[in-house]
Amino acid sequence: MDPVDGDSVAGMLGLSITAGSTGAAIKIKTSGTIDDAGWSWSPGFVFAGSNGELTQALPTTGWEIVVGYAPSATRLNLTFDEPVKLA
């Protein structure tokens, strides 16, 4: 997933919760809550970043894709919004 590539943005299905090699099946979560002790979010929005990474840095180019809201350091509530093309 690359938020600068419009084709990549259009094909976004959700958040991968398992890893997999090319052609292997993975699990995708499209709603609900994910807890991960390794996260250290500040309360606020979480965006899709480059290379499929999650970030709280507001994007300045490409597409703004809100993945969810972090109510605490280790929790993410998935709330995928419609992607917004940045000027």
Characterise this structure.
- With 87 residues, the chain is mostly beta strands.
- The chain has one domain (6-85).
- The chain contains one helix and nine strands, in the order H-E-E-E-E-E-E-E-E-E.
- It has one helix spanning 6-10; strands spanning 15-16, 28-29, 32-35, 44-48, 54-55, 63-64, 66-72, 75-78, 84-85.
- A five-stranded antiparallel beta sheet has the order 3-8-7-4-5, with no helix packed on it.
- Strand 4 (44-48) and strand 5 (54-55) form a beta hairpin.
- The longest helix has 5 residues, at 6-10.
- The mean pLDDT is 89.
Summarize the model shown:
The chain is mainly β and 87 residues long. Helices cover 6% and strands 34% of the residues.
Rg from C-alpha positions? 13 Å
The number of helices is: 1
Main sheet?
5 strands, antiparallel
Query: Order of strands across the biggest sheet?
Result: 3-8-7-4-5
Which range does the strand content fall in? 25-35%
Low-confidence stretches: none
Count of spatially separate domains: 1
Number of strands: 9
Mean pLDDT: 89
N-to-C CA distance:
20 Å
Approximately how much helix is present in the residues? under 10%
Using the alpha-carbon principal axes, give the shape: globular
Structural class: mainly beta
Order of helices and strands: HEEEEEEEEE
